[in-house]
Amino acid sequence: MSRVTYDAGTMTITVDGLEDVERALGDLKKKTPAAAKVAINATARQARKLMVAQAKARYAVNAAGRRHLKDLVQRKKATNTSLSAELHIEKMRNDLGYFQHRPTESFKGRDVLRRAPAHVKARVLKSSAMAALTGDGANLSKGFLVEFKSGHVGMVQRRIGSSSSHTVTERGRPRWRNKDGKVEKLVTMGSPSATAMHSTVWPYVEPEVTEYLYDRQTDGADRAGDRAGKGQKGIGDEGLHGCGESRRDWADAAALPRRADRDAGGAFHREKVQRPTGQKTAENL
Fold first, then answer.
1. Beta strands in 42-139 (DSSP E)
2. Do 17 and 247 contact (CB within 8 A), yes or no?
3. H helical segments located in 71-193
4. pLDDT tens-digit series, residues 4-36
5. DSSP secondary-structure letter at 230?
6. What residues does 13 pair with on adjacent strands?
7. How high is the pLDDT of residue 61?
8. What residues are paired with 155 via a beta bridge?
C-alpha cells in the first residue's frame, strides 16, 4: 500500500508507493514505476509546502525562524528503480531569539540604562500573549538579547552567582560584573527547534498529504488508461500532470476504475488518518 511515514528518530518523512499504481494499471504493470515516481515526488514537494505553512501558522517565528523552517529539504527523489522520496531536516537548536520578541534590538553599555525596557517580552505560539522574561529570581536572571559574533541576536540569561572565564567581549572590552565582581555565565533561553516544530505539525498535515498521494496516483493511472484505451502511444512529458518526466509508450491498457468509483471499491485503497483532537502543550510561551 502506498504510504507517507514520519520517523522522529531520523527526522525523515518518507513517501513511497507501488502496489496501488500497479494494481490499477493491470496489464500495464511494467509501466508502474513511471507513474508512481511522478506521484511520489509531487507528494514530497506538497508535504514540505504544507508542513512549512502549518508551522508558520502555529508558531510565532520571526524572519530568522522562518528561514529555519525552510531547512526542511527533499534529500532523495523517487526514480524508476527506487520508488521512495525523503524529506529531511537537520536537528538544530533554536533559542528564543528566533521567535517574536520586543524589543528586537540588543542594548549595550549606557543604552542598557537609557533605552532598554525593564523586561524583554516574547512568545513561541501565535495563540499566546507576549510574556515578560522575568527570570526565576534565584538561579537565572531576566532574559535579554545579545548579538553574537555570527551576527545572530539571541536570547540569553545570566546564571546568578556563577563565574565565567570570559571576562572581555569580542572587541576586548570588559564585560558586566555583579556586585561580587564576577562575570556570570550566559545560558541560552531554549525554544522548540525547527525539527521539533515540524514533528508537532506533522499529524495535522498527514491526512492531507496521504490524500494528495492517493489522488496523484489515481490521476496518473487514469491518464495512462485513457491514452492506452484510445490506442495512442508515446505519452509525452505532460502525460502525468505535466511534471516533466519522459514516458515510454503505453498500450493495451486494462480497464481502470474511475476516480468517481474509487470509494465504492475501486483499485486504490488507503488508510484513513485521524487529525489530532487537541494541541500539544510542550511550548510554554
1. 73-76, 84-88, 94-95, 101-102, 121-122, 131-132
2. no
3. 111-114
4. 777 766 667 676 655 555 555 554 455 667 777
5. T
6. 6, 87
7. 95
8. 145
